[in-house]
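BUG-730 | component: ligand-complex export | severity: low

The export step for DGJ jobs runs without errors, but we want the raw record kept on the ticket for reference. Input record follows.
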Amino acid sequence: MNLKVTYLILPLMLGALTQHKAAAQTVTIPVETSKNALVLQADGKHYLNTIYFGPKLNDSKEYSNVAAAYGSNHDPSGQMASAYTPGGSRNLLEPAISVIHADGNYSLDLQYVSHKTDHISDDITLTSILLKDPAYNFEVTLFYKAYLKDNVVEQWSNIRNNEKGIVTLQKFASANLYLKAPAFWLTQYHGDWAKEMRPEETRITHGIKTLDTKLGTRANLFEPSVFMVSLDKPATEDDGTVMYGGLEWSGNFRTDLELDPENNLRIISGINNYASPYQLKPNEDFVTPAFWYTLSKNGKGEASRNIQHWARNYKLLDGKGSRLTLLNNWESTFFDFDEAKLASLLKDTKKLGVDLFLLDDGWFGNKYPRNGDHTALGDWQETKTKLPNGIASLVKGAQDNGVKFGIWIEPEMVSPKSELYEKHPDWVIKQPKRDEYYFRNQLELDLSNPAVQDFVYGIVDNLFTKNPDLAYIKWDCNAVIYNAYSAHLKNQSQFYVDYVRGLYKVLERIRAKYPKVPMMLCSGGGGRVDYAALQYFTEFWPSDNTDPLERVFIQWEYSYFYPAIASSNHVTDWSKLPIKYRTDVAMMGKLGFDIVISKLGENDLRFVQNAVKTFDEIKPVVWQGDQYRLLNPREGSVASIAYVNEARTTAIMFNYLVNYRYDEGSIQPIRLKGLDPGKQYKVKEINLYPGSRSGIDESKTYTGDFLMKIGINPKVNSGRTSVILEADAQ
Ligand code: DGJ
């Protein structure tokens, strides 16, 4: 075939591929990535089941034999493996969807009609499968977006009401997976303020384990939606089969993990249907958020590198771009500042050498100035007594110092003592017949209301319109939703869903006008981070807990699911650990400072100034490189993590003492990972404290093979609690 013909024929062939195929007796639908396959099959009765989820087979024709190979012992419903379990007809287990039809009937049945696969790019396919109820004019399209290189799949569903009247969705999951293995282990996370991402691993037993939140905003405060499931045996960093998943939704979520009577694991994840039956009008669609997942046969490390890579390429805003280092004033001033104090902080920003000064909470409100956390949220005008010349003069002051200026807002919130509350009580989420109940002395605005959406959008738009050189926003969210009620909505059961949709509408508008201005997603610590929100944000705030010892653990767990470039890490005075330790830990992400620079001793100042320069050199590797966890802080006295660039010519290895008992430290060499075995590397210690000498012999050259099989000892001990090594190929 000559070249011209290929060009003519290929689009025709691709076109043919994307046509909906009519139902055959059995239809096998593999959704493949480079390593894995999720295989769905419509049986002779048109019921769509998941027949396989695992490493992909060399010959895709063999998928049609998988179901028979596993067999089924006893499934009277014939529905345990359903690809999207409808409730109210034959189901005996947890449904993915349940509805009340227009005629009041509760039963739903879904049968395969057709499917197609679109090739969106060399790296992405989108498979859609249409299912219909044979008795009611009601349909669901399942979507599977497969990212081939990263072995990630995003799955969601489009639920459509073609009936003549309103259908009420009682449950409306995004995904319904089915895993087969002799045994399963769940790693889930729990926490609270300053205690984020505490892992728990347990063997999954029969029945249902539910991970969920009902907090509305700040939804992850007690529990994030991300989790891991190990198959066969608990996976380790480099061994075992493990699946990671999470919901792309910034509100209430619910994931049910049900070990069924056949010993298979059903995972059903989506928006939490708690207090949320959703009414669909005739000809209306309900599009669920996506549930993302990845599967690795080589342990947790590979799974997290898949996700981090996918996030940088496709999800996180400006994931391949750069970030601004900064000095924040929250912990150094809290609400107590004025122009003179800020002028000196701007000078400190310059002195420190970071890119930007970030003005935190406390700059707004006049009738009720924001001098504490009881007032002024909603009144986004500069407090005249504190800042008589406004934000504009601060932006200018920053420019005069050669740095950029960023600002904190908490735009979804309202203080009971605020002009906004007085003017628009109907914009506030509260129960009309009940006492108000506060979280951090504040309430939320009703983002299901388009007028409120305009107001919240206007906060950001006004700031940028008045101050076009404003370079950064920290978007905070410090309260959960109590007394959920919207004065705007007729149907209160749509409140939780419409709040989040309202939030996304605002963020969509902000990003349409200001596509790349960096914004930090903050929520009084890690109360809100997920891959729906991160499409609008460049980074997130993992925890208010900035004690570096705590952060070693917190950042370690976040890193399974989110890349370092998204993690805002600030050096603060939360702990008495040396400034070097605090700074080294913050360098494993996006470095910032929240300390009083003018109070630093000479050597500490010199150290942080040099650290900012060192960080500028190593940040491409930390932000864009592959992360390898080398020593787990939960398993020994030393934590060790390395980042390796794509060319495998540079590795940055961070090592910390995490056990302060007598004589603890790194007694053996630590094996690196991800290097090129054939390359020669020199290893040096970087980010040394002024006057200290490296414990490493920098004259030696090692092969990657040696460094990965034998390793190198960073000599972490009570005198060297934090050590950063850099290995460079020669
Ligand atoms: C909670 C954030 O996590 C802090 O960093 C700070 O911005 C405060 N809110 C301000 O109220």
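Assignee comment: Attached the raw record above. Residues 1-23 have pLDDT under 50 and may be disordered.
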